[in-house]
């Protein structure tokens, strides 16, 4: 039987108390079986439970074990491609619907935190940092686009402006989004799980779904049990493997690495990020960082296509951190870890239905904290018979990766190398 603990992250080391949940034994019956207890699965399950459905979640390891419990904790609005890119891939009506949803995820997170009193260190304010005028131009265009869709909490920062929120000489300016922000991501997932259970929902941990028996009344099999249900929601994202071959062919797991320093001297912490905003830069292969509630620096970056675990994460991430903050050169690193997100070729999420009763959402390609919360609401709406917003997402094309499963890693790495080079050369 499996017994997979959380990755040895700062988040696991500072997690709120949470019960160990049993593995599934024997057969149960439920309305809806959700596979995966990350934000996608938890958000869907919680929306459904709030609407009176009987829901069981099967989680291969522990609640928040995947990307949801180990990410940068940054609440970033919209999608990994912006609304203008979406408009090119679907019709105007669907693009409008998705544009309206682009800022909903952050609101859902804040509503949940307030409604269920989730202790997860919420802070408002996220900064997009630009290295050059080309990136500033892109941010200005993004601001205009987001404002057109009713999102008004944005402020452009010039060189002096960005120096007031992040102490580094690297950026020419940036954009502040006060409806962005940051959270302790594992504690958000644990809080959502507890909220779901308070409404009668059931979570089985250490219970990987090994097989789906399709049909009018589908059955999800685990090593020691079965779930008979009316509907299945597949929310395994980058960790799903080949459970549904239709989904595995359309996306690629990628790793990204994070380090966390020892707690900083409070004066130094306040000097580096005086407003306690989180920051991500505008490069294709971007750096992202912020302070924790106990004033450690969490710094992430780098992408490993195909999600092989790198051997020495500190050796990869520390130089990036020191490039931004040379004054951290003597600071000790307490935690390093890696986690997988799911990349799609369009970098837009893949949402849909297989047959009549298997629903899925996957592949938000890096920016998933807000999107997964929207996805949960949209999947729950579809299961309640209101599919308009679900259909809008489902209208986005799902492209297979060039090169198939064998060559998708080198092909994509080559593409990323090209974009990274363009960032470095500022062309
Ligand atoms: C290191 C890192 C940093 C990131 N930083 C940010 C950030 O700052 N901001 C942001 O917006 N996004 C960030 N992301 C992306 C974001 O975390 C993800 O997009 C999001 O958490 C995905 O949620 P999910 O529920 O779809 O998948 P996951 O959280 O990965 O959850 C999937 C769950 O399904 C389970 N599972 C898989 N297969 C099975 C099975 N067969 N049976 C049962 N269970 C199964 C897994 O064990 C896992 O717990 C980051 C990602 C990583 C890896």
Automatic annotation (TrEMBL):
InterPro entries: FAD-dep_OxRdtase (IPR006076), FAD/NAD-bd_sf (IPR036188). Keywords: Oxidoreductase. Signal peptide: none annotated. Residues 1-22 are annotated as: Disordered. Residues 31-381 form the FAD dependent oxidoreductase domain. The keyword Transmembrane does not apply. GO terms for molecular function: oxidoreductase activity. Pfam families: DAO. One of its GO terms (cellular component) is cytoplasm. It comes from the Bacteria. PANTHER family: GAMMA-GLUTAMYLPUTRESCINE OXIDOREDUCTASE, SARCOSINE DEHYDROGENASE-RELATED. This is Gamma-glutamylputrescine oxidase. It comes from Atopomonas hussainii.
């Amino acid at each position: 039987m499996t017994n997979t603990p959380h990755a040895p992250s700062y988040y696991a080391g500072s997690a709120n108390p949470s019960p160990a949940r049993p593995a599934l034994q024997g057969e149960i019956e439920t309305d809806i079986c959700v596979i995966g207890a990350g934000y996608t699965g938890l958000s869907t399950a919680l929306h459904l439970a709030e609407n009176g459905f009987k829901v069981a979640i099967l989680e291969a390891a522990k609640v928040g074990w995947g990307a949801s419990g180990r990410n940068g904790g940054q609440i970033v609005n919209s999608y990994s491609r912006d609304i203008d890119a979406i408009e090119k891939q679907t019709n105007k009506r669907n693009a409008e619907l998705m544009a309206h949803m682009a800022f909903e995820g952050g609101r859902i997170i804040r509503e949940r935190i307030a409604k269920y009193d989730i202790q997860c260190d919420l802070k408002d304010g996220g900064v997009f940092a630009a290295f050059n005028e080309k990136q500033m131009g892109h941010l200005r265009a993004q601001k205009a686009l987001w404002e057109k869709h009713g999102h008004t909490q944005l402020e452009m920062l010039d060189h002096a402006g960005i120096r007031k929120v992040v102490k580094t000489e690297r950026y020419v300016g940036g954009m502040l989004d006060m409806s962005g922000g940051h959270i302790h991501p594992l504690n958000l997932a644990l809080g959502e799980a507890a909220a779901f259970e308070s409404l009668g929902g059931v979570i089985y941990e250490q219970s990987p779904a090994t097989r789906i028996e399709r049909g009018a009344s589908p059955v999800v099999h685990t090593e020691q049990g079965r779930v008979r249900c009316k509907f299945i929601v597949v929310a395994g994202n980058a960790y799903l493997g080949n459970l549904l071959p239709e989904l595995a062919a359309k996306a690629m797991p990628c790793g990204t690495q994070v380090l966390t320093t020892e707690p900083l001297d409070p004066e130094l912490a306040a000097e580096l990020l005086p407003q306690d905003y989180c920051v991500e830069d505008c490069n294709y292969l971007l750096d992202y960082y912020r302070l924790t509630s106990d004033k450690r620096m969490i710094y992430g970056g780098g992408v490993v296509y195909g999600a092989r675990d790198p051997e020495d994460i500190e050796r990869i991430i520390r130089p990036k951190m020191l490039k931004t903050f040379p004054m951290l050169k003597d600071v000790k690193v307490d935690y390093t870890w890696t986690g997988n997100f799911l990349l799609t070729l369009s970098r837009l999420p893949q949402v849909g239905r297989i047959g009549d009763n298997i629903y899925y959402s996957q592949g938000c390609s890096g920016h998933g904290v807000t999107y997964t919360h929207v996805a949960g609401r949209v999947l729950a709406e579809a299961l309640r018979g209101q599919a308009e917003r679900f259909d809008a997402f489902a209208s986005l094309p799902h492209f297979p990766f060039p090169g198939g499963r064998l060559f998708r890693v080198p092909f994509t790495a080559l593409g990323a190398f090209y974009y990274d080079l363009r960032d470095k050369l500022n062309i």
